[in-house]
Amino acid sequence: MTDHNPLATALWEAGRHLATLESALQDWHAAPPANLLELETDPETLRILDQLLFRFSKLQDALGSRLVPATLAALSEPFEDWPMIDRLNRLEKLGFIDVDNWLGWREIRNRLAHEYPEQPETRFAAIESAIAAAADLAAAYRAWRAKLKPSPCSDKSSDE
């Protein structure tokens, strides 16, 4: 990418993660496992899940570290000294994101970091929550990006 505009860079990065995330979601939904045992004994489904969870995390990171500040900067908001929650609250007021959803996605991501080997139902429920959250995050990012489309800063490569 040759453009040094922070908003275009953020859209490009998030767009890359979105494309792979949505592909993994499509693959997952084509043949979802019924339980953890079925998941863990199918290497292809595990590969899809790994890609899905990795891109769910990477998309969250790209939005939080790049798109949040780039969007606020593009809107001439004085955000530099604001904590993240204030940035999110401002973006919510501007119609870009729902803070409760954002915090929920972070909680789901944090829950994935904890393994419960003796609780397969709990582990599988956490995976199912993450998959639903990944789809919601993808939709939220698409809506956010669409709201930015009229801006001359938008980058058509973010659609890839």
UniProtKB/TrEMBL annotation:
Entries under SUPFAM superfamilies matching the protein: Nucleotidyltransferase substrate binding subunit/domain (SSF81593)
Domain of life: Bacteria
The name this protein goes by in its record: Nucleotidyltransferase substrate binding protein, HI0074 family
Organism (species): Thiocapsa marina 5811
Native organism taxonomy: Bacteria, Pseudomonadati, Pseudomonadota, Gammaproteobacteria, Chromatiales
